[in-house]
Amino acid sequence: MTGAPATNEELTDLYRELILDHARSPRHFGRIQDPTHQADGINPLCGDKLKLYLTVDRSGRIEDTRFEGSGCAISVASASLLTDTVIGLPVKDAEAYFEVVTRRLTSGDEADDGLEIEKLKALDGVREFPSRVKCATLAWHALHAALNELAMPATTE
Ligand code: ZN
User: Fold this and answer.
1) For residue range 75-97, what is the model confidence (pLDDT) as tens digits?
2) Burial of residue 153, with CB atoms counted within 10 A of its CB: 0-12 exposed, 13-18 middle, 19 or more buried
3) Are 98 and 79 contacting, i.e. CB atoms less than 8 angstroms apart?
4) How far is the CA of 58 from the centre of ligand 1 (A)?
5) 49 CA to middle of ligand 1, Å?
């Protein structure tokens, strides 16, 4: 982008576009045949369901991640943004993103802990709609559950 810094309103439009784009054409949608990690995520409040697959290599780096399932635009966009974010990262960095994203959405604490979160800021808008926060955090809880090999499905309830 060039020119004057975007106004808040322009940013909001930009973020809305980003969410819609990821909801319409989710990145890394599908299944991994032999994942090293996987978890289900369920948000009964909205009816969002997803399954997240990860392949973590021997050095502890996330080689690939994919997701499948169905849900509202926000849950799908958030999962899509998640996959874009964590592929190539060490597991501990992916966990740091989980911490930051869920904290930003649930507490309004805007600290980024030095992470690259430009695109993820698109999710911040849901804070104005408390019932949708769980749609946005669902995939991140599934990520956390998968990486920690928690046996139960991640649920937002
Ligand atoms: Zn939802």
Assistant:
1) 999 999 999 999 999 999 999 99
2) middle
3) no
4) 34
5) 9
